[in-house]
User: Fold Monooxygenase from Chryseobacterium glaciei.
Amino acid sequence: MNSISIIGAGIGGLALGNVLKQNNLDFTIYESAPEIKPVGAGIMMAINAMQTFDQLGLKEKIEKAGNKIHGISITDEKLKPITKTNILELENKYNSCNVAIHRAELQKILAENIGFEHIKLDHSLTQIKKKENYILNFENGIEVEGKIVFGADGIHSKIRNQIFETGNIRNAKQMCWRGLLDFDLPEEFHHQALEIWGKAKRFGFVKLSEKKIYWYALINHGKHKRYNSLAENFSDFNPLVLKILESTPKENIILNDIMDLSPIPKWYSENLCLIGDAAHATTPNMGQGACQAIEDSYIIGKLLETHQDFNTVFAEFQKIRRKKVDYVVNTSWKIGQISQWERGNSLRNFFMRLTPESINQKMVEKVIKLEM
Ligand SMILES: Cc1cc2nc3c(=O)[nH]c(=O)nc-3n(C[C@H](O)[C@H](O)[C@H](O)COP(=O)(O)OP(=O)(O)OC[C@H]3O[C@@H](n4cnc5c(N)ncnc54)[C@H](O)[C@@H]3O)c2cc1C
Assistant:
């Protein structure tokens, strides 16, 4: 019998594995995919995630594999600033930077540090049943009995569906393309993330490493013009955007819908707990989904240092995490809607330009400050 089973080797499950290992606990991670092969895209690890990686002894490795980002700017189509958030001060205060990194690099670092002997690939959970312990059935015919179970199986979590019988997934009605390419960005963007807001659409990009950049493009449902290329939808944007889009090989582009999970009342049941997207998937507008999954793991690790009973840890975990997670999910949803208004954008930009930078910094600090 397994003492601790984690379902899902995404960023959340892998972060939790690292934390349990640091607490000298035995665990097995079950992942449905035959290999750890995340979507081909970049990801931003904000200061809250990087503080956790610091405690795990992984901060330098992740910084080296990615690119430090010291500021985030929102601009209009012509790159005229709307807001700019300088995070150097917060970086000094929390002794960590934002890091943009290829998802594959991040997951490789997390998985290698755990050790592949703890990760069972090609194990897709089909059914979970509570008897005295949990009975886990996998698609490959294997059955495992587990005492403690973590559901880190993402927004469509089978554990959430079967144990909690809840989970309303909300579609933001925005299509999202993501791309990776080798590109020489102007130097002013080497350590800045940029998000450009247009009418019913937006475009963001960030440098990941010496040559690689990662971009994302969002368009409201019904507003995507079926031209030959995605770039033509952004013909009113600065030429740099068009150049990035036109230079991206088609096979390096992925397309998803943007969605989140309506807050569910409870993340835990007897000897079982959901973390990451399975518990509280958010839209990506604050770049915090994976960071919140990592923060979940951090808090569980901290609680395990002083409590042996997992059920006490789970109840405390939700008590500590709930307020911030709800804030992220709700604020991110609102930002997503405001950023892609179809009219009134000049007025929106005018008022946003009046907002003092200190207010944006306060909002960032609220999110990146760890709760324990
Ligand atoms: C466009 C976009 C951009 C984003 N940008 C950022 C960003 O910059 N920063 C940030 O912090 N977050 C970002 N996010 C959010 C982030 O990707 C997610 O929040 C994060 O990946 C959630 O991690 P997770 O481990 O909880 O879930 P997932 O990444 O979904 O991982 C779940 C894992 O469980 C496995 N699994 C699922 N079902 C089963 C099963 N039945 N049996 C076994 N295994 C199973 C899956 O294969 C997967 O490996 C972005 C999201 C999107 C869509």
Remarks:
- The mean pLDDT is 96.
- Residues 7-13, 30-33, 43-44, 123-125, 152-154, 158, 176, 178, 216, 256, 276-278, 284, 287-291, 293 surround flavin-adenine dinucleotide (CB under 6 Å).
- The radius of gyration is 21 Å.
